[in-house]
Specification:
By secondary structure, this protein is an alpha+beta fold. The chain contains 11 helices and 12 strands. About 30% of the residues lie in helices and about 25% in strands.
Length: about 290
């Protein structure tokens, strides 16, 4: 596309129509939700698509369904909508705080859940990191049907999903875990955090850690689990364990990326402190 030409905008009313349009457009079409990532494509030297299929009028993609067993989050729900919907869901505090703290208020009222997951060159997605820690799954659809992927599988495969497919919803099972979200922003460099740590733990009757899921974002190019620390914390009493001390010799499992807001070594250096803060939030919330 010429830099002076404008892309076509298609505005379907239903999910079926959106999927049909994307199937017809093939590689020339791209879904458009909040647009907070796409609008800055020229600043990243990325070409605009020939056509965008806007999803904002599709009601089912904006719904958030909450039950005692699970939460289903439409891909076009904004960060602000999600934070408000989860106000009373203390077991999902990590996701609630990720939605409430990311970027800035203006962005939170426009940026969508699906956009946060699908921005492949965005290394600091709060929601994707929190959802990884909560073992969420992602529903992806095209004109032929839909499939459900684990968050880990989705993050690994999203660059190869091909044209015509969109994220329709995210599903989080409510399993009784406690969760917390910790991030380190540097305001002078913008809204992107230096590092993100999101945790979810399951405890036994003696408040020992039976299972820990620890997701790290912004340190590398894509969020991923800190499995070495998860394994080291199994069986530890949550109220007495020094998580930062256990994390420190295991931080070298990450290779920090250099960026305008911080060098790679510093991103790795702050991880023990951040994960310690997240676990401190878990224990304080339980008292």
């Amino acid at each position: 596309m010429s830099p002076l030409s404008s892309p076509a905008i298609i505005v379907p009313e239903t999910l079926a129509d959106a999927l049909a349009s994307l199937a017809e457009l093939g590689a020339d079409g791209t879904p458009l939700a909040g647009g907070t990532w796409i609008m800055r494509a020229p600043l990243r030297d990325e070409p605009m698509a020939h056509a965008y299929v806007a999803l904002g009028r599709i009601a089912e993609l904006r719904r958030i369904k909450i039950s005692a067993k699970r939460v289903e989050i439409g891909a076009s729900a904004t960060h602000a909508m999600l934070a408000a919907a989860l106000e009373r869901c203390d077991d999902l505090a990590a996701l609630r705080n990720a939605a409430a703290q990311s970027a800035n208020p203006a962005i939170r009222h426009a940026a969508t859940v699906g956009g946060n997951l699908c921005a492949r060159r965005f290394p600091a997605p709060d929601l994707a990191t929190a959802l990884l820690g909560l073992d969420a799954s992602v529903e992806v659809a095209d004109a032929a049907g839909s499939e459900r992927l684990t968050m880990e599988a989705f993050l690994a495969a999203r660059g190869a999903l091909g044209p015509g497919r969109i994220v329709t919803k995210v599903i989080v099972e409510r399993t009784g875990h406690r969760s917390a979200h910790s991030r380190l922003p540097l305001r002078k460099a913008g809204d992107y955090p230096v590092a993100i740590v999101s945790v979810a733990v399951r405890l036994d009757d003696a408040d020992r850690i039976v299972e820990a899921r620890i997701a790290v974002g912004s340190v590398e190019g894509v969020p991923r689990r800190w499995t070495a620390l998860e394994e080291a914390l199994a069986g530890q009493p949550i109220a007495a364990v020094d998580v930062a001390a256990i994390a420190r010799p295991r931080a070298d499992r990450f290779t920090g990326r250099d960026g305008v807001e911080a060098p790679g070594w510093y991103r790795v250096h702050v991880l023990p402190v951040l994960v310690g803060r997240a676990f401190a939030a878990l224990t304080s919330a339980a008292t």
